[in-house]
Amino acid sequence: KMDDDDDIPQLSSHALAALQEFYLEQQQREGMKTSQGFNQYSVGSIEEDWQLSQFWYSDETASCLAKEAVLAAGKGGRIACVSAPSVYQKLKEQDGDDFSVCILEYDRRFSVYGEEFIFYDYNHPLDLPENLLPHSFDIVIADPPYLSEECLQKTAETIKYLTKGKILLCTGAVMEEQAAKHLGVKMCKFIPKHSRNLANEFRCYVNYASGLD
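^ EFMT1 methyltransferase, sequence as received from the core. Prediction below:
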């Protein structure tokens, strides 16, 4: 009879050392984050999870979209970020008193942001907390996680439920027709950039006179 242990794949000592080093680095990074002076709202403070199709905007793009959102929302405005956490982080970094913001996001790591975090799964577009009243946001910024009509259509239901009217959508250039169809938004001149280059060309779409042209 063969030894049962033979079936269990063993990591080479080299692979094991590499793994330990990786975990150690990760711990140190996390440690740095919690230590003095770390801004939990800075873009990239929560790392991208590619399995969730997450790609953060470049700092410049996040700033530009956040600025646009504040202007569009107006004084005392309410802003909803749907699957657009890097814009949410930028808005929080500005720490403005004259607007409020919510983040609707599938990734529960963002629950560190407390009450402003709302768990959101685009497959259930209207499965939202009762205190999230219809048409209670001056602007909704959304970046659907997948470039598919189904994902856009479902996210569009959420956007239309939340917004008083203004919509800022970020998605692929290939979605132009569907974006017009489901949300009545038009492409802007502004080209959003990501911290890592994506294969698909990305664009912004709005349904109001924005500063992104």
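The longest strand covers residues 163-172.
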